[in-house]
Write a structure and sequence with these properties.
- The radius of gyration is 20 Å and the shape is globular.
- Helix 2 crosses helix 8 and helix 9 crosses helix 10.
- The chain has one domain: ABC transporter involved in vitamin B12 uptake, BtuC.
- 74% of the residues lie in helices and 3% in strands.
């Protein structure tokens, strides 16, 4: 009987540890996916260069830390700024230029931008992985979970940013204008809302979130490469579509569910299958809830 109890206890410990890891992954994924869904909401564009904005943020923080010896918090701010600048440049130089073109043309254009940015990063930093060098901290038991102090800091940061996103969408003029533009850009323009400015500001916010998420992701996994954001782009799309594309809060929920599913399933199978699990999750969700897990009706606009 005792060996059986020890086995059950061990299995439960593994489950809780994997659940804790899933929450940590979901925290970063939620930020990236929300940024992606905000871009889609105001521009109706599937931005395939989204992952490179994360990578730019991560490398901006790396340069500020390794070359200028900036602190952790300064690096986070620099990653956020460079993410916003990269996203604004992408919107101004590419997305707005293709606004009246067919969606497939814009999609291919963002794919081209992704490849260009990825190769520029490869030329600038090389293909070898680099690391920040920030301390991971000690392991802490928080209830049934086992987290490092770094992981706790990352999750708390993600919660704070999610709260700021809520305040932005619900309590500011930009948030109200953003919702109006996402529903009907032309009507919003006629109503006196500067739609183009709102779109640019939204892309700046999305880029800032992405840059910060890229920094958190690089800090969590320990190393960064020019292809850092490429794989995370696929997860962001999965979370956004699975939760509800165009709905920030639904996307947050989708990211949490996806992070937990990937971590728990990966623990009991193999971490090498996590992308397979993610796409399996997406296929199942599209079959069961094609508009997203947390969405009723069509998910084309930003709503509360």
């Amino acid at each position: 009987m005792e060996p059986m109890l020890r086995s059950v206890s061990g299995d439960m410990s593994i489950f809780w540890i994997s659940l804790g890891m899933g929450l940590a992954v979901a925290a970063i994924l939620a930020l990236s996916a929300v940024a992606f869904t905000l871009e889609y909401a105001v521009s109706n564009v599937v931005n395939l260069a989204h992952g490179e904005v994360l990578t730019i943020g991560a490398y901006a923080a790396y340069v500020s830390h390794s070359n200028f010896h900036q602190s952790l918090y300064v690096c986070a701010i620099i990653a956020t700024i460079f993410g916003a600048l990269a996203s604004m440049a992408l919107n101004f130089g590419l997305i707005e230029r293709f606004r009246n073109q067919k969606p497939v043309s814009t999609l291919i254009a963002t794919l081209g931008a992704s490849l260009i940015l990825q190769n520029l990063l490869l030329i600038g930093f090389g293909g070898a992985s680099v690391s920040y060098g920030f301390a991971q901290g000690s392991l802490l038991h928080v209830g049934p979970f086992l987290w490092t102090t770094l992981t706790i800091r990352v999750m708390l940061s993600a919660v704070v940013v999610a709260g700021l996103i809520y305040i932005l969408l619900q309590r500011t003029r930009l948030g109200k204008a953003l919702r109006a533009v996402s529903q009907n850009r032309e009507l919003a323009q006629v109503s006196g809302i500067p739609a183009r400015s709102v779109v640019m500001q939204t892309w700046a916010v999305a880029g800032a979130i992405s840059g910060f998420a890229g920094f958190l992701y690089g800090e969590t996994i320990g190393t960064i490469t020019p292809t850092l954001g490429n794989g995370f782009l696929l997860l962001s799309i999965t979370a956004a579509v699975g939760g509800g594309l165009g709905r920030p809060y639904a996307t947050l929920g989708g990211a949490v569910v996806l992070g937990l599913v990937m971590s728990i399933a990966g623990t009991y199978t193999s971490s090498a299958y996590q992308l397979v699990i993610a796409f399996g999750f997406l296929v199942v969700m599209l079959l069961i809830k094609p508009n997203g897990i947390f969405v009723r009706g069509r998910a084309l606009t930003v709503r509360a």
